[in-house]
């Protein structure tokens, strides 16, 4: 494996934890890996004050992480000791570390949960939606890195067996493609000439064709435009300005997309669209 092109999984996880702490200012970030028996092990961390949670094994369905794996959705508690949405097998370890609020988000690669990304604070501070969105976006980036690593390992296996393999793009190159795709959709939206706009939209489709899977969910051009804006980090107001429509209309498109894709947040919708090949 080319180390300059591809981080191994441990490096990707450590980078995700560090960048998440920097982006949110949250003191504790952790990653728990899913083991063969479906239990979790907290295998990487930043900011822990004690060894209480280091290498902790978490049984299936237990605590925040176990519930994340069971539901395959983010789970957050603002007061761990009193939370009624989780079980409390690990209260003593949490209390020894002194954590108060915790959020856990699943990291899913090829429909398989690879682990749980956590953030936590030692004081009675509620972790708001912005923090949860940031954790979710970091999890999505980590998913891409792990998927690329997996593809690279398969690629190396083919080469080792005497086969030919093409170059796998790294995370930065994928982000450039994604940004270009989103900007191209925005450009197409501004073009008044129907034929030229169709050509631009066809180019957008060609950018995702290599990874497209059979779509059972059809998204309209406007819905894809909204998702492209969200993928660039635009707010609803910024997307409305970019697309030349009202913010309420953007919300309406976004609600429709989330309903079609079964997503609960705007960023889950972007990730779901990428999974079906609607976005790169």
Account of the protein in words:
It is built from 10 helices and 6 strands. It is elongated and about 65 Å long. The protein is α+β, with helices and mostly antiparallel strands and 280 residues long. A hairpin with a 5-residue loop joins strand 1 and strand 2. It has 2 domains: 144 residues, GAF domain (Beta-Lactamase); 105 residues, Orthogonal Bundle (Arc Repressor Mutant, subunit A), CATH 1.10.10. The chain starts with 8 loop residues before the first helix and ends in a 5-residue tail after the last helix. The protein has a 6-stranded antiparallel β-sheet with strand order 3-2-1-6-5-4, with helices on both faces.
Properties at a glance:
single chain, 280 residues, alpha+beta, Beta-Lactamase, Arc Repressor Mutant, subunit A, 2 domains, six-stranded antiparallel β-sheet, 10 helices, transcription, DNA binding, GAF, DNA-binding
* Average of the residue pLDDT scores: 82
CATH superfamily of the largest domain: GAF domain
* CATH architecture title of the largest domain: 2-Layer Sandwich
**H/E element sequence:** HEEEHEHEEHHHHHHH
Could you please say which CATH topology of the largest domain applies here? Beta-Lactamase
Number of strands: 6
Per CATH, the class of the largest domain reads Alpha Beta
Name the structural class.
alpha+beta
What is the overall shape? elongated
Q: Could you give a short account of the major beta sheet?
A: 6 strands, antiparallel
**Helix content bin:** 40-55%
Oligomer: single chain
Gyration radius, to the nearest Å? 20 Å
Q: Separation of termini?
A: 24 Å
The percent range for strand residues is: 5-15%
Unreliable spans:
1-7, 210-214
Looking across the biggest beta sheet, what order are the strands in? 3-2-1-6-5-4
Helix tally equals: 10
User: In total, how many domains does the architecture comprise?
Assistant: 2
């Amino acid at each position: 494996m080319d180390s300059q092109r591809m981080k191994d999984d441990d490096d990707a996880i450590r980078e995700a934890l560090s960048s998440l702490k920097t982006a949110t200012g949250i003191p504790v970030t952790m990653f728990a890996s899913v083991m063969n028996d479906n239990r979790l092990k907290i295998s990487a961390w930043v900011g822990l004050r004690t060894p209480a949670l280091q290498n902790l094994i978490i049984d299936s369905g237990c605590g925040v992480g176990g519930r994340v794996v069971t539901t395959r959705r983010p789970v957050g508690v603002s007061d761990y000791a009193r939370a009624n949405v989780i079980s409390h097998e690990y209260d003593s370890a949490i209390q020894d570390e002194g954590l108060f609020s915790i959020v856990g988000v699943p990291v899913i690669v090829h429909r398989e949960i690879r682990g749980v990304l956590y953030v936590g604070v030692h004081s009675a501070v509620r972790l708001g939606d912005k923090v949860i969105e940031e954790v979710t976006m970091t999890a999505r980036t980590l998913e891409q890195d792990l998927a690329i690593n997996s593809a690279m390992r398969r690629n190396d296996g083919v080469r080792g067996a005497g086969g030919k393999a093409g170059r796998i793009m790294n995370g930065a190159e994928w982000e450039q493609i994604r940004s270009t795709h989103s900007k191209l959709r925005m450009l197409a939206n501004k073009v008044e000439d129907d034929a030229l706009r169709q050509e631009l939209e066809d180019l957008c489709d060609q950018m995702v064709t290599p990874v497209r899977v059979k779509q059972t969910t059809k998204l309209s051009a406007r819905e894809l435009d909204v998702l492209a804006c969200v993928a660039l980090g635009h707010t609803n107001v910024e997307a409305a300005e970019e697309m030349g429509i009202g913010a309420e209309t953007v919300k309406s498109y976004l609600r429709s997309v989330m309903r079609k894709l079964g997503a609960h947040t705007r960023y889950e919708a972007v990730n779901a669209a990428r999974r079906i090949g609607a976005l790169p």
